[in-house]
Known about the structure:
The chain is an alpha/beta fold. The protein is 34% helix and 25% strand. It has helices at 6-15, 42-45, 66-80, 98-105, 120-129, 147-160, 174-183, 186-189, 228-231, 239-250, 258-261, 276-283, 371-386, 413-429, 438-458, and strands at residues 33-36, 57-62, 89-94, 110-113, 133-137, 164-167, 202-211, 213-214, 217-218, 262-275, 296-297, 300-313, 316-327, 335-341, 345-350, 360-365, 393-397, 400-404.
Amino acid sequence: MGRYVCPVAAVMFLLGLAVTSATRGGTMTEVRFMTLDPGHFHAGLVQKEMYPNVARRVHVYAPLGADLTEHLNRIVAFNSRRDSPTAWELEVHAGPDSLQRMLREKPGNVVVLSGRNRGKIDKIKASVEAGLNVLSDKPWIIDPADFPKLESALATAERRGLIAYDIMTERYEITTMLQRELINDKSIFGTMLPGSLAEPSVYMESVHHLFKMVAGMVNRRPAWFFDVEQQGESVPDVGTHLVDLVQWMLYPDASIDYRKDVQVLAAKRWPTVMSREEFQKVTGEPDFPAYLQAHVHDGKLDYYCNGQVSYALRGVHVKLDVLWRYEAPPGTGDTHFAYFKGSRSRVEIRQGKEENYRPELYVVPNDASDRAALAPLLAKKMEQMRKEFPGVSLSDHGGDFRIDIPDKHRVGHEAHFAQVTHKFLQYLKDARAMPAWERPNMLAKYWVTTQALKLGRRQGNDR
Length: 463
């Protein structure tokens, strides 16, 4: 097969992207990205900005099809925007043997992966075994049977001094960062309560929507998105972020051992039922494809995209709900709710009507009589926080304290990908800078998500 497939070259010419030669410049210390099978827009968001010491030429290995074209469109949009345009050059290698060809040619030293979650761990494992660093979006695994492959891939990366990094964007959401600060301040939060299975002391709910309008256009989802065998169910997919946040917030800078510190206690799953018309509206496809027919009943698709898991983390009871609804009510959107219960207060993120459907952070005193004592402590905490987050302040909301966050700190989900990439590049420059807890905590995270799936399926389907 030649280096280029003519249709891709033509598409790139029409879109205004440079179709470069095979010359490989730069030094061995230069970071060179290779994007492999971009099946989700997250791969494109890694390139929303340029980075120091990262080559502008990126090699893309993918089958010729809609996923590749959409990826090219995104990079074009970044290169052609009016404000701070990027200057990426793409060399596209289009063909069905993308992984094998990338490993054979190896024009870069970092593999960027997103989408098509089934088999993603095989690509990651093959990449690190070939001496390549990996920056990949979640989830790395969606099936408990693949957990040993995850252990092997991370062990190989550690042994060979490579960085294999999971794109955990929610660590960079401002309300989450400040929530983490507050629950680790004993003068305000007290000590973490253990809770119980019936009354967990940590609860998170994440609600997403299948049908969305973006910039006046339908945000099309590929038909394979609705195949849980490819995309994964809700807890192994979106739930990865929530499990990561719980351990990152509760035990900062501490390693979690999934064999001793985690007990998955209960889980369940249930579908969002979609009509054929709803499926057509969100995918643009005329009908349910053959690989979804097993989940079609009476002309409607049972899409198992809702899940719940309860588990104990070092004795602290946690409950997570990960939900997908078809369409948000007018004026609303995706939402995140989270609380942590301490002996002195509860710290929670709300995103309801009162918050104009944007996340806001609250501190709720456990005892009304203790409210007056908490006020000056929170005021002092705001002074400390303003050193890193200028402008944060405190306001009274009917007995609850709200942390008011200036808009300049609300950079948005898309910007978080560049923040994660900057952190990855820092670790790439010096592998010793990567915290020792990242690897064991990644294992703990995927142990929870995949064991939740196993337990939920064992308990049967709720329909």
